[in-house]
Amino acid sequence: MVKFNFDASFNSTARTSISGVIARDSQDFILAAGTYPHTRIADAFTAEAVACERAVVFAQDLGFRSIIIEGDSLSVFKKVTSANFDKSVISPIIRDILSLRDLFQSVTFAFVGRQGNEAAHMLAKLGFRQPEVRIWVEEAPASVALRDRPP
């Protein structure tokens, strides 16, 4: 199983967001990290949903088959794990996430508090300094690399 943590930074004035995603193996070694800019984002709620979707796409792009998706947006996790049809403004994004789930052998969605999602949060913030897609393989920026690791 590979764990993908995601978070979003949102700029309401510019209506842009940055998704930060970091992948770790079962021994907490960094496998990959990335920042992804998005435009025409309506609100922070949408930014978090887009970041979750980006984490699933990143996992697919990297070829992993069994994944855990973690983030600190409880509302997004409630929607992707609900048996009810989502009618919110982010329903197209939720449907996308659920259809992507079928491309994997195993996908688990898990809510973690802010403290357990610090590396992804730092990546999302870092992305506003350089707002283009950035990918790191088997590493992450130094300011991010040691976040979320157990003591």
From TrEMBL:
<dbReference type="InterPro" id="IPR002156">
    <property type="entry name" value="RNaseH_domain"/>
</dbReference>
<dbReference type="InterPro" id="IPR036397">
    <property type="entry name" value="RNaseH_sf"/>
</dbReference>
<dbReference type="InterPro" id="IPR012337">
    <property type="entry name" value="RNaseH-like_sf"/>
</dbReference>
<dbReference type="Pfam" id="PF13456">
    <property type="entry name" value="RVT_3"/>
</dbReference>
<dbReference type="InterPro" id="IPR052929">
    <property type="entry name" value="RNase_H-like_EbsB-rel"/>
</dbReference>
<protein>
    <recommendedName>
        <fullName>RNase H type-1 domain-containing protein</fullName>
    </recommendedName>
</protein>
<feature type="domain" description="RNase H type-1">
    <location>
        <begin position="5"/>
        <end position="126"/>
    </location>
</feature>
<dbReference type="InterPro" id="IPR044730">
    <property type="entry name" value="RNase_H-like_dom_plant"/>
</dbReference>
